[in-house]
Amino acid sequence: MGESEKRKSDNIVWEELGISNDFLFGKVMQDAQLCKELLQRILPGLKIDHVEYPEGQKTICPDADAKSIRMDVYVRDGKGTVYDIEMQVADTGELPKRARYYQGMVDLQLIDKGEHYKKLKPCYIIFICLSDVFGIGRHMYTFENICKEDKNIFLEDGTVKIFLNASSQMDDISADLRAFLDYVAGSVSEDAFVKRLDDAVRKAKKNREWRHEYMTLLMRDQENIEKGIQQGIQQGIQQGMAVMIKTALETTCSVRQTARILKLSEEMVRKEAADKGISVDD
């Protein structure tokens, strides 16, 4: 593909993005007013005075051996309550466990060594999904920790996990939130907030810096996928060769014969035999 064709292809990719793209969603939600109104639609019972951005798309890297995470939208309100909002296109089958991990990583950022646990502020982990994670048909699933033996007893640990489903047809949420979720699913309405959100998406697509950042990330993801495929192929070849060497050795018990049949060096055959604990004859 020539350079001009590649630029044209990149433009098509960028122009086709909607609010359901996590990168674009994170950029649009940098508008504090839009972010605040979205949170109020999801959590109408909470009075959110304003939202603050501790940093951009927050990346948490706990240590060298732990899995790092990058949050789409990470904000606090005037009372210190933390909100992590994630746009999720694909149902990977692990979102509940992912929500648990995100919750733990957020808590690690909220208090320092030696501080009391009571300093932990309330935290909401919110996943906006294109499909129904739980298969019941609801628009919204809210989880809090309660006593299994007595449903009237709440743990009151300050954590809430919410999964929104943009594909639902059930009449189970407010018209305001329904309008937003319909927009996530691809339908633009006359709702004032949705119109402002759609305008913000259009403006975001004109931001050349964001477009470049997105295409760079996309290219990096593609390279990582290709690298993973090549590594998988190589591992498959190595595993297959190991099985053939093991089978040949167990059949012939001869390094020389095995190497000749499989067109390998005798040194490689001996090494594989040693790794598998197989005694062989030269």
Describe it.
This protein has 282 residues and is α/β, with parallel strands linked by helices. It contains nine helices and eight strands. The strands form two sheets. The protein has a six-stranded mixed sheet with strand order 1-4-5-6-8-7, sandwiched between helices. A hairpin with an 8-residue loop joins β2 and β3. The N terminus is likely disordered.
Structural class, by secondary structure, is alpha/beta
Share of helix among residues? 40-55%
Order of helices and strands: HHHEEEEEHEEEHHHHH
Mean pLDDT: 81
Large-scale geometry: elongated
The number of strands is 8
What Rg do the Cα atoms give?
26 Å
Described by strand count, sense and barrel closure, the largest sheet is: 6 strands, mixed
> Which sequence of strands runs across the widest sheet?
1-4-5-6-8-7
- Low-confidence residue ranges: 1-10
What is the distance, rounded to the nearest whole angstrom, between the alpha carbons of the first and last residues?
53 Å
The fraction of residues assigned to DSSP E strands is: 5-15%
Helices, by number, come to 9
Quick rundown:
Helices cover 48% and strands 13% of the residues. The protein is α/β, with parallel strands linked by helices.
